[in-house]
Amino acid sequence: LSPTMEQQALNTLAKESLKNLSKFGGGDHEDVVKWLSDVEEVFTRTQLQSSNRYIAVQSYLTDSAEKWFRANKSTILDWSSFKIELVKAYKPSLHQLLLKMEQRIQLSNECVMDYYCDKIYLCSQVYPDMSFSMIIHYLTKGLKPSLIAHVIRRNPTTPNAFRICVQDEEKILLTLNGFSYTTPTEHYNYPTDNIDMDHQVNIIKRPINAHNQSFNRQHYQSAPQPLMNVPTTASSSSFSRSADPYRSSDSYRSSSSTSRQCYACHGFGHIAPYCPHRKNM
What we know:
Helices cover about 60% and strands about 0% of the residues. By secondary structure, the protein is mainly alpha-helical. This is CCHC-type domain-containing protein.
């Protein structure tokens, strides 16, 4: 790129940075020190002079902060005095800063780096010369419960060592969670209607149908043996007589009369006293 094009690109970036710069209204949830730090950084990138910074910052004040500036404009004459007086007016008390630092905990879906940077900043706001041991104490106190035991075990001695320790454990936990969400292995469904399959293999792998199982059991089991060996003819005739007693007695009389034999003429169906051929004898 030519020097002219590079300058145009820098100017475009500067305009975008100024456009995206957040405004300050003086609310309880706003951090005046952090906001001034962000503003200073953007003004430095855009290469604004001190006099121009004092003029430009006025367009980023709103609500209570805008009212405060209008009321105190006569005593705030430049960029340096503006920063000092704004911090005096809106910097929270030490008690408020300490409470905010204590309440800053790592969210369930928040990465270690975001939590670490915010907590370090809050510690520096409460005590600029806070010792490493106290910083690590507050850092550990706000960690996720799943990470605290790992910090205690490894016992880091500097804030940077704390960050490395916790990030290592965070990566391990993310890897384990990735394993737990993998799709379980699907069970293979064996074919049941493949006529080209080996018959012996098919017998083993085919699901047994309840109807077929019942049929096979009946097919291979022998007929039940009777409790007593009763002659078939006797049981049949007995059954016939018990089923129809009148018919059975008639049949008995008919068979009895038919089986009689006459000793006179040797014929059947009658006896000698009633023989029709006796008169002729």
